[in-house]
Amino acid sequence: xxxxxxxxxxxxxxxxxxxxxxxxxxxxxxxxxxxxxxxxxxxxxxxxxxxxxxxxxxxxxxxxxxxxxxxxxxxxxxxxxxxxxxxxxxxxxxxxxxxxxxxxxxxxx
Length: 109
Description:
- This protein has helices at about 5-20, 25-30, 35-40, 50-55.
- The protein is mainly α and about 110 residues long.
- It starts with a helix and ends in a 56-residue tail after the last helix.
- Its cofactor is heme c.
- Its main location: periplasm.
- It comes from Shewanella avicenniae.
- This is Cytochrome c3 family protein.
């Protein structure tokens, strides 16, 4: 890593920590004893790919009762290939990605 890259990374981490984002973790992951490097397997830490999520989590089974919405994990637009991170965020509030275009009333953990 070059000196400039290292300095920029350091500044980015300070800013993230100042915003509280770098130190946040979902309570169920904390309770399971996970640490940052449990999911972030690269140095410096990089985006976590969906395959990493699937080392602990299983792909959800097909469900039909989503308050009138189609199966959230088998989208009519993307099939089952939509990245988990589109809805499930570790370091910020999760979101209902479908509601970017639709209006479905369900909460995302």
